[in-house]
Amino acid sequence: MLAHRPDIKAQLKETIAQALQALGLNELPEIIVQETPAGKEGDYGTPVAMSLARTLRKAPPQIAADLVQNIQLPDWVKRTFVVGGYLNFELDPAFLVQTATLPLAPFPRTGGKVLLEHTSVNPNKELHVGHLRNICLGDSLSRILRFAGREVEVMNYIDDTGRQAAESLYALQYFGLDKAPAHVKYDHWVGEAYVRLHQAMEDPEKKAVIEQGVQETLHRLEAGELRPEVDKILRSQLQTMYRLGAEYDALVWESDIVREGLLGQAMKALESSSYVFRPTEGKYAGALVMDTSAFIPGLEDPYLVLIRSNGTSTYTAKDIALQFWKMGLLQGIKFVEYDTQPSGATLYSTHPEGVVMPFGGAGETINVVDTRQSHALRVVQASLEVEGRHDLAEKCFHLAYETVLLEGKQMSGRKGIVVSVDEVMDEAVRRVLKVIAEKNPDHPSPEEAAEQIGVGAVRFAMLKTEAKKQIDFRYDQALSFEGDTGPYIQYAYARAGSILRKADEQGVLQEEANYAQATAYEIILAKNILRFPEAVQDAARNKAPHILAQYLLELAAAWSSFYNAKTPDGKPATPVLTASPGLRGVRLELVKALRQTLKQGLELLGLQAPEVM
């Protein structure tokens, strides 16, 4: 028996390539192999003959027929035949089903580090629904890329010198709110003060006093005097991130980028370019300006200020310095051990008293940032072009995502029109607990299951939709055990586990499978299981977790169809435990493979797999 699952499609592609070469083709077209549609003859097919019609000056059916004459088939292909312009393959059913039950071979490791930055929430208040999508996309993509063989470093950027952090810290001082009550999570306490400060600033007299206080706080932040206060907010935010299932390799603080001189080094490097200069007159007089017109065409004003005439740096300048460090153009940031995360992995953080570690220096970067920041990310990319590093500029990817509505409403942190991520998770868990109490009152651990299902439902709702489409999160839809939801996939996993536990109790779990008995029902389920590695590769290549999410929904639906299949006279067509010996072994092996595939897929999306729903 084979140790690992062979790649059926890859082997068919190789077979087709050899047949094309036998026809005298030296330059081969892209060879696509896909499952044949339901109701059509064969298991897999290729439209390659259609793409060769112009080159060979023949009709596709004739090209396909020529391929049949020249093809050397693997022994597990029963026959190959022409359907229109397609070349179809019918596989040995026993081989096809048995292949789906074999363990997946690890993906080959691919060289080069990917540095993926996500979350990067201002350390000034609790995380709200708008941040949910960023965290879920970034964390899931890092899991998918690692599984697909990439070396991934996950970074969370801490903007501790920005105005938002200054406003929150000054708000605590202004209102005398230095100590939060024990029952209030600290980042929520700070967030309330932040909103109150913005309300107070509507009064012009108060605004003048507040503005002076905020500016003083900003200077103290930049001097590093208030780091412990920012750290307290950050650690409270991390509790939310951890509960969502997100973990990081490194926190990079903006103040450390500046303090270690990286900002100055980046600006000095850019100044040697003809695209960066200091105008002596006009509105940009005295400032350090970058001309982006050669790299971002069509801008009304292509000049971008990096250092203002008063010597202060812009957000863009700091972002450029960070990007230069990410891609190895700058070194020297020091790190310390910061926290032990729920998985046991160490989280590192930049710190003036740390040591230099091998973070950064990646050949490829991914920034998970909403679509409104597209221009800012394009400017950072242009700075690499200015530096003469087109190779690195090409490897900067912006995973842009659209906004999230909650029950149809848009969020605004400054106006206090927000629902926190903590509240969303709490509400989801509360609702699931209620369902469990109604439907499964004897559940062995309802609180644990409710946490896994509720938080998983929230994550899946953020991942199932293509990033460039807006999401309207609604509790009833997200928490449903039917339809395109996380609980639907988790339920499919739990149902498969229940069958295997019963098989174990009956002593038939390890029954030998007679794959020659496999029927059309097993073939359909097997083909769905076999698509898993392809879904992972597609999601990794396109940096699109929704591809994997949609695959898992399709797999769960295929399992439901198999489980509920009926014979023409209305009897169960696919019983597992009461099937005849040999066929029962086949079905049990398929259920094991299905369960493992669902579990692995859920894990890559950051969802847990409850044993009992």
TrEMBL record:
A Pfam family that the UniProt record links to this protein: Arg_tRNA_synt_N
SUPFAM superfamilies: Anticodon-binding domain of a subclass of class I aminoacyl-tRNA synthetases (SSF47323), Arginyl-tRNA synthetase (ArgRS), N-terminal 'additional' domain (SSF55190), Nucleotidylyl transferase (SSF52374)
Source domain of life: Bacteria
NCBIfam families linked to this entry: PRK01611.3-4
GO MF term list: arginine-tRNA ligase activity; ATP binding
Keyword Aminoacyl-tRNA synthetase: yes
Segments forming domain Arginyl tRNA synthetase N-terminal: 10-91
Subunit structure, interactors included: Monomer.
InterPro entries: aa-tRNA-synth_I_CS (IPR001412), Arg-tRNA-ligase (IPR001278), Arg-tRNA-synth_N (IPR005148), Arg-tRNA-synth_N_sf (IPR036695), ArgRS_core (IPR035684), DALR_anticod-bd (IPR008909), Rossmann-like_a/b/a_fold (IPR014729), tRNAsynth_Ia_anticodon-bd (IPR009080)
GO cellular component, one term: cytoplasm
Domain DALR anticodon binding: start-end pairs: 489-613
EC number: 6.1.1.19
Reaction(s) catalysed (UniProt annotation): tRNA(Arg) + L-arginine + ATP = L-arginyl-tRNA(Arg) + AMP + diphosphate
GO biological process, one term: arginyl-tRNA aminoacylation
Protein name: Arginine--tRNA ligase
Subcellular localization, as worded in the UniProt entry: Cytoplasm
Segments carrying motif 'HIGH' region: 121-131
UniProt main location, coarse: cytoplasm
Similarity section: Belongs to the class-I aminoacyl-tRNA synthetase family.
Alphabetical keyword list: Aminoacyl-tRNA synthetase, ATP-binding, Cytoplasm, Ligase, Nucleotide-binding, Protein biosynthesis
Organism this protein belongs to: Meiothermus hypogaeus NBRC 106114
